[in-house]
Amino acid sequence: MKVYLDNGATTMVDKKVVDSMLPFYVDKFGNASSLHQFGVEAKEALDNARKIIANKINADPEEIVFTGSGSESDNLAIKGIAYSNKEKNHIITSKIEHPAVLETCKVLEKQGFEVTYLKVDKEGFIDLNELKNSITNKTCLVSIMHANNEIGTIQDLKKIKDICKEKNVYFHTDAVQSFTKVEIDVKKINVDLISFSSHKIHGPKGVGALYVKKGTEIKKLIHGGHQEFDLRAGTENIPGIVGFAEAVRLGNKEHVTSMAKLRDKLINGLLKIKDTQLNGATGNKRLCNNVNIIFRYIEGESLLLKLDMNEIAVSTGSACSSQDLRPSHVLTALGLRADVAHSSIRFTLSRFTTEKEIDYVLKVIPKLVEELRQFSPLK
Ligand SMILES: Cc1ncc(COP(=O)(O)O)c(C=O)c1O
Questions:
Q1: What are phi and psi of 116, to 5 degrees?
Q2: Is there an atom of ligand 1 within 6 Å of 148 CB?
Q3: How far is the CA of 100 from the centre of ligand 1 (A)?
Q4: 15-250 — its CATH code?
Q5: Which CATH class is domain 3-11+253-374?
Q6: Taking burial as the number of CB atoms within 10 A of a residue's CB, which of 33, 119, 123, 315 is the most buried?
Q7: Phi, then psi, of 297 in degrees rounded to 5
Q8: Residue 105 catalytic?
Q9: Binding site membership of 52 for ligand 1 (Cβ less than 6 Å)
């Protein structure tokens, strides 16, 4: 049985999504900026996709900017705000952000910006008081992710926004992992900028979006044509955008409930193995599809390879750092020692994950852990 439990890295494109995209490669291949019928057809598809994504978060369609990835959305949000604020040069983020945010902040530091990296507690939550105390009259932006990609901890966006509002600072959140899994209503939370990515929700790769609240002053990063409300030049990827919108349309609450049930079954089953521990928060403060477990005394990489031989795909750390031998910056920020961080495995479910698959994983893992521990120098 082949079991894919690395949906935090990427997901299978839903066949219905593929079907929605296909006409836009051959029959309806127009450029959305062209004035003829082919262009009009493409523009209609683009507008419709924008409406679907806007509706999902209770935004206006003009507030959705399509990009090429979640990483690009993060870059546009952070650099876009930083470059448009001449007098303010301070940004606040957290230590557990995705590299798309952290590396962007590092680039800005080299350009003279100051960045505060907030610490997190054992479960991965930021300290709201530390946030409040870190904001100065030089702060232009707070960027805190909605749900963490490694440990699934969900931050309280409303509380963060309330602090930012009081201090008159823009708030960006990276919702790449939480989109369609945790409800986002921009009228209720009032966030200024939100990053999304299509390939994490059964849409195609190479498509993202950034929600930009009306009135937010932001500089574009890619210059050329005036596409995307003059915030991102380049001919729009109509098939990709149509697929992204279809993926958003297909996501629903029942999927979330069933993933959470299987997540808890997997967590409870794995915690029965001796010397294991859960990383991150529990219940509805944790993403419905994320399980991150420490298997003491073994290397996560060795377990990953053994699982791969049994046709079970998982990850250690996030996909982007899988070539990196340093312990995960997220796990060390929780206070874990490097060797303990190295013994963690992330399992990420999707709405296509079945109970049979979870049963298979729970049958296979205890034996593999025992085998690896027998030869462990760490014990
Ligand atoms: C939280 C988070 N932000 C941003 C990204 C980057 O998204 P993309 O792969 O679309 O560039 C990822 C991908 O793993 C992610 O998990």
A1: -105, 130
A2: no
A3: 7
A4: 3.40.640.10
A5: alpha beta
A6: 315
A7: 75, 5
A8: no
A9: no
